[in-house]
Fold this protein.
Amino acid sequence: MEVKLLQPVKVVCTDDLGETLVDIMQTAGYSRPLMVTDSFVGSMPLVVAARTKLEQVGVDVAVFDQVKPDPLCETVESGVEAFEAHKADSIIAIGGGSSMDVARGINIVRVNGGSIIEYTDPAKPIAPCNGMIAVPTTAGTGSEMSNALVVTEGSTGRKLAVLADPAVSEYAVLNADLMLTLPAKMTIACGLDAFCHAAEGYLSRMASPVTDAIYEKAMFLLYNYLPRAVANGQDREARERVMVASTLAGWMLNNAGTIAGHSIAHVLGAKYH
Ligand SMILES: NC(=O)c1ccc[n+]([C@@H]2O[C@H](COP(=O)([O-])OP(=O)(O)OC[C@H]3O[C@@H](n4cnc5c(N)ncnc54)[C@H](O)[C@@H]3O)[C@@H](O)[C@H]2O)c1
Ligand SMILES: [Fe+2]
């Protein structure tokens, strides 16, 4: 067996989002983050409170909240403009996979130049992109850990993936309180995305006993706790377990990938959202 298991993302589970973000900014030496989010998540009380806490200690936060589900390449371009206008030094991505993916796209383009669509070509080199702090508010995509981002090309409507090991998050910050508002339908859809990452990775030809061990646990957690999180969105223990499963499965995406399920999903998702 030859397995190399890399885990470059620093993972912080916290019950105090604002305090943790302040701590990360101070430890990593960032002071001008661009917050990348969507308009709903950007106005969630917990998110506003975290932003206020950052501002109270002198962190200058600019907000880019134009992300929409199944984000377009153009949104990444607008985000790069916002990053440059603010003279930002880091990105706090807060939201679901759409916000985290856009943030990763902004980070790639602000460091490497060009347009995000060019990076769908796996031969295109990508220099290391530090400075992304990912805070998931859905438990599903695992984008806080993964090397992937999915964008839609406006002219063709195709959903395309960029795979960029040098652009994984510097930090993933996990806080289950953010997920208590997620409606049942979204909880199911996101939880099944995580389950599919685990099940497809488990069946992948890139799987190894190491990835299997982690996938088995992710599927176990989702099988046991996702129905509880759906039945009662306020069940914090269930939300936490589902969140951890989603993050573990997202980490393993970089190691065993997905198979036909996600290939089909990207085609159907592009057409039916
Ligand atoms: N990078 C990856 O590895 C990866 C993996 C799987 C999927 N994806 C991509 O991620 C995107 C989907 O992300 P998603 O499923 O997380 O959803 P999303 O980010 O598109 O958000 C969907 C909706 O949920 C709302 N929402 C988010 N958090 C909420 C909360 N806590 N409470 C209430 N509402 C909330 C948002 O405002 C939005 O309207 C797709 O584009 C998909 O292709 C990426
Ligand atoms: Fe997925």
